[in-house]
Structures are given as structure tokens and as C-alpha cells.
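Hi P.,

Sorry for the delay on this. The queue was packed all week, but I finally got your sequence through. Input first:
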Amino acid sequence: MNETIDLPGTLSGLLRVAVHDVLLVEADPKFELNMSQWVEGSDIPGVVCEVCMAGAVLVQRTKQSLEDLLWMSNPSAVVDGPTSWKLEAINAMRTGCFRSAGSWITYGHGHNPLGWLDSLTAEQEEVVRSVEVLVDSDLIRDVDDSGNARFQVYLEAAALLESVGL
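Then the structure:
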């Protein structure tokens, strides 16, 4: 049976957890942030593992050994469905795709963002659109089109989302 990790059920809560865990990873010399890798072994001398934002949450909160997580193709290999969906939501928010993130935590896939939007109030929908612009305007893309915004921007987005119950 795959592991369940206790993660918040809101976009704002997931963003805060992700930023917290990324900062822990950044402080640990055995890790390197690489937004194009969930959890991957590293060829960098002294660095054991490269992780993305969702991967940082996974390595900080799972009971699995780091060796068991290395080269994992997707989180559903080690965690249960709802946990995997929340990690996918974090990955979507990293790139500013908050509608897909909402769909991930509501439906278990990112393919119904309009259905998720239909469930929101006008105020919530406006906040989702504003945080998408906020993150997208700060996004620093890597060569492979992955990347992230500054972590303070994610915390600002979390505060806005929380203000409308998301």
C-alpha cells in the first residue's frame, strides 16, 4: 500500500507547506533545487538528490528512504492517490496553473479546470485569476521551460487564496 502524507486540502495550505519544505531543502547541502525533476539522483559532487517544489515536500514528509525515492517517475509510485494529487497541485501552482491545481485537489486530475472554476464564487474566481497573473509575471523559466517564481510570491499568492477560503 502506498503511503499517505498528511497535507492540507487547500491551495493556500499546500503552497505554504511547499515553500516551507523548499527552504529546508535549500538549507541541506545534499539537495539541489531543479524544477524539472521530481526526485532524481544527482551527478553534482556532494549533492545526492535534485528535487522540484513538490519533490521537496515529498522528501521532507515521506517515511520512504531517499534511496527509494530516487529516479521516481511520478509520485503515485510511492504515495496514495489523494497525496499524489496534492503533489501534482503543488507542481501546477509552481508554474502559475492554479486552475489545474484546483482541479487536481478536487477531481484527482488536472484536466477539468473549468469545472473547478464553475464551483467558485465570483470573488474566488477573481482571486484565482489574480494569483495566476502574480505568479506568471514573476516566473523565471529554465532552459527546459520549467522554473519557479520567487518563494515570497508564492506566500503572497497563498495569503490571497486563503482570504477567499481556497
